[in-house]
Amino acid sequence: MAETVTESGTTSPGLLASLDPLLREWLPRQRWFAGKGRPVTGFSLVAATELLPVSARLGLYHVLVRAHQPSVPVPGAVAHPADCYQLLIGVREALPPRLAPALIGHVARGPLAGRTVYDALHDTRPAEVLLEALRSRARIGGLRFDRDPHQEIRPGLVPRMVTAEQSNSSVVYGDTFILKLLRRVVPGVNPDLELPLALAREGCARVPAPTAWIRADLGEISADHPEPYVLGVLQPFLQGAADGWELALRQLAKHEDFSAEARALGRATAEVHTALARALPTVTLGHAQVEPLAEGMRERLDAAVQAVPALRPHAPGLRTAFDALSALAAEGHTWTAQRVHGDLHLGQCLRAPSGDWSVIDFEGEPAKPMAERRMPQSAVRDVAGMLRSFDYAAHSADPPDPDWAHACRSAFCTGYAEACGRDPRTEPVLLRAYETDKAVYEVLYEARHRPDWLPVPMAAIERYATSDLI
Questions:
Q1: pLDDT band for position 78 (cuts 50, 70, 90)
Q2: Residue 416, exposed/middle/buried by CB under 10 A (0-12, 13-18, 19+)?
């Protein structure tokens, strides 16, 4: 496939040929690479932009590249035959020791022959280039750096990359801002920018308002890319905030009650849902909409059973959750659907030193198509995700503490009802279906990525197959 190259200077059309053999080895090892389990058969360049000239001591390329893989996945894998990835490629004669973990490789041929390339987000100067481009609202090739004119970005903020494992990459600037760079990108509106902007317009303080954002607008360069790509979002950094998952595990380790935190988190979640319902359209889900939803849950269960045989004895019991939802919809029951978080769990929540909770990361489940992530859904889906997260935390402890999980689940629903007047427990059929579907997903994920964790969701599966939830 021919290369599409956007340029701020002169970008050699042989760039991808230089990088290809190195990326084949390096890319599949990254936490955010979606196509694990299948070989990379080739790359095609979507766009490459020179941000710092390679002729200098330090060169920098912004690269959008498609990784081509076999269309038939291994059992249980998600098919992404040509995912597009965002890379920041640094170019040096040699890497200093501090950048050793960022090494991609040593280039043997092409325009970069003899140079060393690495993941530039680990390096101070490339991270500074990104912030300055956002501050100045730069236009470089097809890259568009934009920001809220009412928020100031001071120059000179010192960057540091967040090294915690995550599905994207983040850089913190002087404890003032955090830049989240999406790694696997798709064209069109991205909820990770769309929803926080909508919530900011509603004055919802539970979600940090976007300060600036990066897009790739390639439509002017190639008719093959009519829609822009959202590449990154800069938001205020919540200094001193505690990750909800880590906070919960610490409380568990000390055998301390977490129900007050869970109740406050329930109130915060309801406030976000209420603001989203004001900001964006809502729809009514009747039988015609709910039956495909339930059938999708059945299909995911069937696929998971094929990939994880341990699920097979529980499948009939799990299926009753989805059949009950179909039956209720057939009787004429309806539900309200709205925009939701889409992947809510304790790790997507931060508690400030003041005790206030914030909700982050509105990208949704990365494995799902963007159109599906942006569809209105029942807010109960987010609730189910959080309830599963409490259960996950409790069963990750040694020994497991199911009573802790039960107290947190109840407190969360109570707090949710206090804030919006709707208790999720009054929709037990819908809640059970969503929780069961989430647990099935967890089993498949753990079997494929973290087999040692498989007993955690399997413990829930055994309960869900024989009883109701709350």
A1: very low
A2: buried
Query: Using one digit for the tens of pLDDT, what is the confidence trace for 394-443?
Result: 998 889 999 999 999 999 999 999 999 999 999 999 999 999 999 999 99
The closest of 440, 452, 456 to 76, measured between CA atoms, is: 440
E-assigned strand segments in 31-163: 42-52, 59-68, 82-92, 103-106, 116-119, 139-140, 143-147, 159-161
Every domain range in the chain assigned CATH 3.90.1200.10: 242-464
CA distance 48 to 70: 25
Among 321, 311, 301, 331, smallest CA distance to 468 is for 321
pLDDT above 90 for 165:
no
Q: Which among 368, 363, 408 has a CA at the least distance from the CA of 389?
A: 408
Distance CA 363, CA 243 (A): 18
- Residue type for 15, please? L
Beta carbons of 430 and 325 less than 8 angstroms apart: yes
Contacts of 271 (CB under 8 A, 6+ apart): 204, 206, 419, 420
Compute the distance between CA of residue 441 and CA of residue 77 in angstroms, rounded to an integer: 12
Angle at the Cα of 325 from the Cα atoms of 324 and 326, rounded to 5 degrees: 90
CA 322 to chain CA centroid, Å, is 26
Confidence bin at 444 (pLDDT 50/70/90): very high
Sign of CA dihedral 116, 122, 125, 129: positive
For the record, the structure tokens of 387 come out as 């309830």
What pLDDT was estimated at residue 9? 38
How is residue 151 annotated by DSSP? Answer: S
CATH T-level assignment (fold) for domain 242-464: Aminoglycoside 3'-phosphotransferase; Chain: A, domain 2 (3.90.1200)
The backbone torsions φ and ψ at residue 322, rounded to the nearest 5 degrees and listed phi first, read -75, -35
In terms of DSSP H, where are the helices of 281-401? Answer: 287-307, 315-330, 370-373, 380-396
| Mean pLDDT for the stretch of residues 442-446 | 93
Q: Nearest CA to 228 among 238, 236, 220? A: 220
| Residue carrying the six token digits 């960022």 | 102
Separation CA 216–CA 106 (nearest Å) = 28
Rounded Cα gap, residues 394 and 400, in angstroms: 6
Greatest alpha-carbon pair distance for the chain in Å reads: 70
Q: Which tens digits make up the pLDDT trace of 319-346?
A: 999 999 999 999 999 999 999 999 999 9
Q: State the Cα–Cα distance between residues 53 and 356, nearest whole angstrom.
A: 45
